[in-house]
Please model this.
Amino acid sequence: MTVRPIVQIGDPALRRVADPVPVGEIGARWVQDLVDDLVDTMHDANGAGLAATQIDEPWRIAVMEVTHNPRYPYKPPIPLTIMVNPTLRAIGDESTAINEGCLSVPGLRGEVDRHVEVEVAWHDRVGDAHVARMRGVTAGTFQHECDHLDGRLFLDRVTDPTTFTTWDNYDRHHREAFEQRMHEYVARMGS
Ligand code: NI
Model:
């Protein structure tokens, strides 16, 4: 088990467009080790997801898992998902504002417009191909992680900078209303 340092905003690693993993290499030791490090580091940081660019590795790999997470109590569960070379496309043109944070952006949250429904295709850690439609808050989490692989942070998508808030002020002034809105959103979307 290797918990790796998570690079923080300002590090050029976060702005790199990651390279696809050659599909024939997915079973190779270096890819398997990288996947293990991502999962261990995500768990250690109590995050909902982590992309390889966040541990300074320029490969298109991201991992996600949501169990009950006090950082994000409104997020529906996502089983441990390992995505190699994920691609994502929007279904329809509906979007919704989601208040996001990021392990690479310490202390800050802000509101981002995310597609309500997306189709995601990826390879898992043994190379099997998957395609799935995601909706609601879960779709937002997938969009956040795929953005990392293109060198994008949630900050780039905050259209109203007055929504930026520290976590303390989020807890104090915004959490209750946001979690209520997300609770209703998840009930409507089913995820
Ligand atoms: Ni992030």
Q: What stands out?
A: The helical segments are 29-45, 136-149, 167-189. The pocket of nickel (II) ion is lined by residues 102-104, 144, 148 (CB under 6 Å). Strands lie at 49-51, 61-66, 78-90, 95-102, 105-115, 117-123, 129-135, 165-166.
